[in-house]
Amino acid sequence: MRKKNREYVKNSKPKLTDRMRPRKSNRDYVMEQQNNKENNDRLPERGRSAATGRSLPGNMEDDDSYSDRIPGEVPRTPRGDLSRVEKIEGMFVPKSGKRLRTNRYMLYTSFLILLLFGGLIFYLARFTTYEAEAIITSPYNKRSSSLAQNVRRGSIKSANDKVLAETGIDDDGEEYRYYPYEDIFAHAVGYANHGKAGVESAYNYELMTSHERLIEQFKQGIRGRKNIGDTVVTTLDTRLQKRAYEALGSRRGAILAIEPKTGKVRAMVSKPDFDPNTLDADWEDINAEENNSCLLNRCVQGLYPPGSTYKILTALEYIEENPGSYQKFTYRCKGEDIVNSVHISCYGGQSHGEEDLSKAFAKSCNTAFVQIGSRLNLNRFINLNRKFLFDSKIDFDLTVKQSRFGLNSRSEKSDIPQTSIGQGNTLMTPMHNALIMCAIANDGVLIKPSMVDRIESADGVEVSRTKVGRGKRLADESDAKILQKLLRTVVTEGTGYAVNTDRYTAAGKTGTAENSGDGDHSWFVGYSNVEDPDLVVCVIVENGGAGSEVAAPIADELFSCYYDNEMYRDYRDRADDSEDAED
Ligand SMILES: [Zn+2]
Question: Does any domain span residue 238?
Answer without folding.
Answer: no
